[in-house]
Amino acid sequence: MDQHGHILQDNIMYKLIENYCTDPERILKLCQKYNHMFKIRDPKGDYFGTPEKPGSIKQIKHWNMPTELKEAIFDTIPDEDDGFCTAHLNKYEAGDFLPKHKDTAQGYYRFKLVFLQADRPHFKYYDENNKGHLVEEKPGALMDMHIATPHEVTPIGEDEQPKYSLALCWFPSSAGVA
Ligand SMILES: [Fe+2]
Questions:
Q1: Which SS3 state, helix, strand or coil, does residue 79 take?
Q2: pTM of the predicted model as reported, rounded to 2 decimal places
Q3: Is residue 64 a contact partner of residue 32, using CB atoms and an 8 Å limit?
Q4: What separation in Å is there between the alpha carbon of 129 and the centre of ligand 1?
């Protein structure tokens, strides 16, 4: 198993930016408070991977998110751009996973994943040689990768706690959408 920290390597396709979120614990506590609001992502119409292997994930999407949870997110991440940002919270329980996929081949927006807890690593990205690398999931760290980077979340074990993460989608003001 390869694990990269924030050390840059020649073929690296991401940067791990530590302490991007300054208070992941505040978000995690609210994830537990609003646990009942996580909904299973529709595996038919809204899937990752392929319809045959859609993955399994629970989410609170931005538009269903309680105000105090939104505040806990946007109070603790940098305002990097004067554009527009949506936030979804992800929850993976035992057996949940995301198959290998790309978020999109290209786009004017940027996808940013923020780890909220340190546990057994499950987030895996694939380098240009299609070699998978597990990433050390430091709480508050930003996984800053190109939007076309293939990645997956390996299945959560029966003996593991639920895993939460924060997915941000940034639309820079230069894109003209904000
Ligand atoms: Fe993804």
A1: coil
A2: 0.86
A3: no
A4: 19
Alpha carbon of 49 to ligand 1 centroid (Å)? 9
Domain ranges of the chain: 16-175
Angle formed by the axes of helices 67-74 and 24-33, nearest 10°: 170
Q: Which of 144, 43, 152 is nearest to 97 (CA)?
A: 152
According to the CATH classification, is domain 16-175 in 2.60.120.620? yes
Specify whether the CB–CB gap between 91 and 152 falls below 8 A: no
pLDDT tens digits for the chain (178 residues)?
344 444 444 455 678 999 999 999 999 999 999 999 999 987 777 666 677 778 899 999 999 999 999 999 999 999 876 678 899 999 999 999 999 988 766 667 778 899 999 889 999 999 888 999 999 999 999 998 887 888 999 999 999 999 999 999 888 777 665 5
Indicate the SS3 state at residue 175: helix
Q: What is the distance in A from the centroid of ligand 1 to the CA of 76? A: 22
Contact 60, 164 (CB under 8 A): no
DSSP secondary structure letter of residue 28: H
H helix intervals, 54-151? 67-74
